[in-house]
Amino acid sequence: MPDDVIAPRLQPAEVVEAEAEAAASTGEQTLPRKEDAPPTHGRAARGARRRDAGPPPALATAGILVALLLLWIAGSALELWSSNVLPPPADVGSALVELVQTGTFWQAVRITVTEIVAVFAAALVIGFGLGMLFWKAPYLGRVCEPYLVSFYAVPFIVFYPTMVVIIGLNSWPIIVLATVMATIPMTLNTWIGLAGVSHVFWKLAAVLGCGRRQTIFRIAIPAAAPIVLAGVRLALIYSLIGSVSMEFLLAPNGLGYQIRYQYELFHQNEMVAYVLVVFMLAGLLAITIAAMEGWVLGRRRSS
Amino acid sequence: MTLALRVRPILVPLGSFGLLLLGLAVWQLCSGLTFVIPSVPDTIDAVFSSLGDPDYLHDLRATFTRVLLACAIGVTVGVILGVALGYSPRVRAAVEPLIVAMNSVPKIILYPLLLPIFKVGMTSQVIMGVIHAVFPMLIMVTGAVAHMPTTYRKLGRALGASQLQVLTRITLPAVRRSILTGTRLGVSLATIGVILAEFFTTEDGLGRVMKQAYQFAQYERLMASVLLLLLFCFLVSFAVWNLERRLPE
Predict the structure, then answer these.
(1) Chain B partners of A64 at a C-beta cutoff of 8 Å?
(2) CATH number for B109
(3) Residue B143 in domain
(4) Predicted confidence band at B154 (pLDDT cuts at 50, 70, 90)?
(5) Has residue A20 been placed in a domain?
(6) Confidence at residue A56, expressed as pLDDT on a 0 to 100 scale
């Protein structure tokens, strides 16, 4: 019995874990698991992370960013490339300062951020629900699995025109399509995470006399947390990528649209400024999710 | 504890095929509701008439060449840089956050920055494909090499293997699963990168065909191209995914 609880799902689990790394994590939380017996995987993963900590690498990372900025300044000053290719940082900086004083800029930010939040929330709820469903009904899950795994490859953006005609020319087509993109990794990771929970935990729950709800919320979800969190992180990344690229290619508003619009007007400074804003947004989301992960995994350790 | 599958293995692909038929049926039903969704027979007609059109075949070949080039470059660069980063923990600690952050940026917005340098055409589209494909491979190979048990390399050295032998006989085989997963994601992402770049601006390619079909409201032509694209990505990822699953532990 214990064997067939773990074994059938192990291979795909690793594939999806690896995928989680591919798009998001640094690898610590999943790879050590492969060498360990399943019941200890959580502890092993955390141990590995702590060993890796060492001196703060954040300083070196900041150093690299500063070096890149210096290179940009020097290259522009020495005219290694023309300002049509990449304008000097001072010009981009002043364009950015002017932009943040305009209503257009903040409207674009508001639209994009609203889309990201809506997509992220929808993907979390739907993905978690589907993941639970596939875990509870493994046959259904296995039947859907090939499609889920390969639908990473679908450029959902091509359905945008269709959606516009059905829903209308507003943020909703983007929200619907980006939600489909972001839901897939959330579903896969929830499913794999729950399926990978050691049978020891289920026995423990039974021994302690946990109810259905307690088993799920107090045992299953904390035990599956590292993999589910990788899914949450992927969902957030896909929300950003889906929203901004659809705006960039087709939509009539948002940060992505502003980049295209400034490009078409040959406003190189403003365009680069908007690209930098998207980079900052991506960095902000990365920091937020890292903090959230630290908080959840910390709580998990202490409880 | 109902996790174990209690059906015969053959029922799984049968079920997947059934789901495909169900999907087609739902599509056919939806096509009756609005003119933007072409019916299934119309779309299949469009697939065959497109494939019989020499212009379309030219576009298809252009896109396919770019995707192949982008994959080849992306996979090679990703594996080489990934192994290098995995071998050097210090550099990895500093660079990895930037790579992970870059991975979450919608890369297509970099395309207008590439255009003034490389102009519209093959080079800029291939680079766009490479930028899309390289990050998952890089992140995965870096992680896998860094977390490879140190005994592997020690054993190699103890047996008197050269650096190159350690690399080709020990390191690369040890991380082959990550390389396969990176390749699978890389093929899909390179395709998306090339198509999106063509969609933005180009003279030829599947992306241009789709954009034109969209602008002229030829929805069955649009859908036919989407279907071909889906089929290509599905077959490639499914094949590589099966390889991954069959790898021994």
Answers:
(1) 94-95, 98
(2) 1.10.3720.10
(3) yes
(4) confident
(5) no
(6) 65
A291 and A226 within one domain: yes
> What is the radius of gyration, based on Cα positions, of chain B?
22
Are A152 and B237 spatial neighbours (Cβ–Cβ below 8 Å)? yes
Domain that holds residue B241: 40-246
Residue B4, in any domain of the structure: no
- A50 assigned to some structural domain: no
Q: Do B1 and A157 touch (CB under 8 A)?
A: no
Same domain for A110 and A237: yes
**Would you say residue B7 lies in a domain?**
no
Is B170 in contact with B149 (CB distance < 8 Å)?
no
Residues of A in contact with B104 (CB under 8 A): 23-24, 236-237, 240-241, 282, 285-286
Degrees, nearest 5: CA angle B125-B128-B132: 145
Highest mean pLDDT among B27-36, B125-134, B236-245: B125-134
ipTM of predicted complex: 0.84
- By the CB < 8 Å criterion, does B231 face chain A? no
Q: Which residue, among B43, B104, B212, would best test binding to A if mutated, counting the most A CBs under 10 Å from its CB?
A: B104
Query: Residue A91 and residue A70: Cα distance in Å, rounded?
Result: 15
Longest dimension (CA), chain A: 73
Looking at residue A97, its pLDDT comes to 93
Looking at residue A220, the DSSP 8-state letter turns out to be I
Residues A63 and A98 in one domain: no
CATH number for the domain spanning A200: value is 1.10.3720.10
Same domain, A157 and A278: yes
User: What tokens does B71 get?
Assistant: 């994959």
Can you tell me which residue has the tokens 């698991």?
A33
**Do the domain assignments include residue B112?**
yes
Are both A75 and A213 inside the same structural domain?
no
**Residue stretches of chain A with pLDDT short of 50:** 1-54
Two tokens at A298?
A: 């910390």
Interchain CB distance below 8 Å, B234 and A150: yes
Q: Give the tens place of pLDDT for each residue, B116-133.
A: 888 888 899 999 999 999
Q: In 3-state terms, what secondary structure has residue B78? A: helix
Tell whether B177 lies on the interface with A, counting CB pairs under 8 A. Answer: yes
pLDDT in tens, B90-125: 888 888 888 888 888 999 999 988 888 888 888 999
pLDDT single digits (tens) A216-234: 777 888 888 888 888 998 8
**Residue B230, min C-alpha distance to chain A (Å):** 6
**Closest A-chain CA to B143:** A27
- Which of A139, A150, A282 comes nearest B105 by C-beta? A282
Per-residue confidence (pLDDT) for residue A148, from 0 to 100: 84
Q: Are residues A76 and A143 in the same domain?
A: no
